[in-house]
Amino acid sequence: MAENQAPDVKLPDPVEMSRAMTRIAEQSQRLVTEFLSRQASDGVGAKNPDPMGVGHAFLEMTTRMMADPAKLMKAQMTLWQDYLTLWQRTTQRFFGQEAQPVIAPAKDDRRFKDSAWDENTLFDFIKQSYLLSARWMQSTVNEVDGLDDHTAKKVDFYTRQFVDAMAPSNFVMTNPEVLRTTIETGGENLVKGLEHLLKDLERGKGELRISMTDYDAFQVGKNIAVTPGKVVFQTDLMQLIQYTPTTPEVNKRPLMIVPPWINKYYILDLREKNSFIKWAVDQGHSVFVLSWVNPDEKLAQKGFEDYMFEGVLAALDAIEKVTGEKDVNAIGYCLGGTLLASTLSYMAAKKDDRIKSATFFTTMLDFTEAGELSVFIDEEQLTMIESQMAQQGYLDGSKMATTFNMLRANDLIWSFVVNNYLLGKDPFPFDLLYWNSDSTRMPAAMHSFYLRNMYQKNLLAQPGAVTLGGVPIDLRNVKTPSFFLSAREDHIAPWKSTYMGAHLFSGPVKFVLAASGHIAGVVNPPAAGKYCYWTNAKLPKASDDWLASSEQTPGSWWPEWNNWVSTFSEGKVPARDPAKGGLPVLEDAPGSYAKVRIV
């Protein structure tokens, strides 16, 4: 909003406004009544008002901060000096003079993209005041001495959550775009936003589930996850999909993809233009994908080793029956890669070499530096999670989704608060965000084992410290040629941590680093012409040394991987029709497991 521009003012229609507010009041009353009733019958958290230990962490931080008043006073003086400079330069701008900003938002900070944040002196002052306060708050808590590493990370993380929540862009009167829209529409945006808010509360049964996309715009198997194929096998934990070939000949050795079960497999098959599965089929691979079940309380006792036996190993047996091929090339993505590595160690102990090459997408094996997810892994929080799972038999998928969204709160929480609730806009239909909202549950036994043994204790990286199926798992025994794909901006599986994991194997390892993050770094089709990737023929111990001597290549890493895996293809054979294999077809892809939605 330019300083001398007066927007058109629209007076609200009193009849329509009255109807809308009546409808909102009725809906609110019903939601509040249901929420209070549910809270009264739910004892979770009643005995511990701070089950995540956030208050304790901040109390410890405050105690240590006050023990050094001189340091605190110095930080406060620095803030006041910054504010004084800002007031001086703002005064200069009010008198029509040029003045350089004291502080500017990061280039990728989209909260302040509206031109009024720069052009309007008042909003520029609000923006810079916030940025100065945010910088001071985070630097002050980060410089407190004497905190253990985990407490320091927790304080830093939740300070950032508070700072992000308090951004002026999140409030009507301090967001120029929202203020302008409110004046122009006579407040209709706020009424519609309130309706959106109540709808999201109703969808979450009293808990706020922010709508990130138009959920009616997509349907699994109709316009998302549509690569043709057949479900040829299933267990309690997974359905095995074989995809229909698009080439007259295919690689003799099939390709088996093991996705994570924290999310659904179709992140690799969103739509034709960005489907890794479709692209791999077009390159002549015989593609098989494990589609994991969305478990309920009946599967509460399924453990990590059950995912190995009823998942990866069962799929290997089924692929042999379907194709007659004993050996495969395998891909594991995120948690699916952790399972694949564990299975490779188990198979090595059993003298089973059916997996001839292994590819790992953003996979953690050494959890020493587990990134920001480690903030949620301590005894207090694990006890709380296990208490919740004991009641239900599983971890609710929304809990996991909220955790991941908090890692990028400005992009995955507050941007939607502004768009949906303040601007009153409908969410934009976006395939990736539809997938992101299609949450999956975690069986209680498996999830507790995974969090405690891998995240909390980092036992997978220690030879023989984890036992699966009676076999001590030792990743040093894995000699399978491996391709590790990591993403430079990955907040979930930090690339330097995945790089440490790549050193645990004894076989040849090719490490590739993609630009962007956990999803966009992986789902980057060549046709898009986006990003870049780094390669290095050597694998030095230190990740920084690897990057310093690496070679950067523009575009997608997919062709680089295909060239590598093709050396393990064992030639060509006539294309394999899933309907004519060694096992009967159960149903069409994507299968019934992938279609189960919990929201």
Automatic annotation (TrEMBL):
The keyword Cytoplasm is assigned to this record: yes
Residues in Poly-beta-hydroxybutyrate polymerase N-terminal domain copies: 108-280
Keyword terms, alphabetized: Acyltransferase, Cytoplasm, Transferase
Source superkingdom: Bacteria
Pfam name, any one: PhaC_N
Subcellular location: Cytoplasm
Main location (coarse class): cytoplasm
Domain AB hydrolase-1: 282-524
Protein name per its UniProtKB record: PHA/PHB synthase family protein
Organism: Azospirillum himalayense
